[in-house]
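Extended Data, panel c. Modelled sequence:
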Amino acid sequence: MKNIASILLLVLIFNFTAQAQKKRGYKQQLTINQQTSLKVKQMTLSLDLSDKQQQQVTPLLRAAIAFRQATMEKRKKEKKKRLTSDEVYVIKSQLLDNQIALKRGMKDILNATQFEAFKKMYKQVMKKRKLRATKRSTKK
């Protein structure tokens, strides 16, 4: 009986310490302009953008970030609702249309070497997003 009680006590202690170690802080939500500014600066460092290119890239990124934020907010509101196949199709179609528009816009603005570096960066970002999404879906 003593052994069972001590084992139960150990399990409870481990459970409470595991709960205490979980991250409870919330990320600070940056505004669209702040996110855009940071992204442009990051791209300037990695792609060596000129001032003119920075000004041309800013509206493209602002539109992409605004779309992503709007869809996330909409999804949070409808979190418990299961999407129909038509709704999934519309969402994926909009997402792909925005990705195509961003890529075409960047191709017009950047030179060939910059665009190749952009494609490489973009591919890495998409891999990270897919990895995070699969982790989230397996967690549930």
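The chain is about 85% helix and 0% strand. This feature is highlighted in the accompanying rendering.
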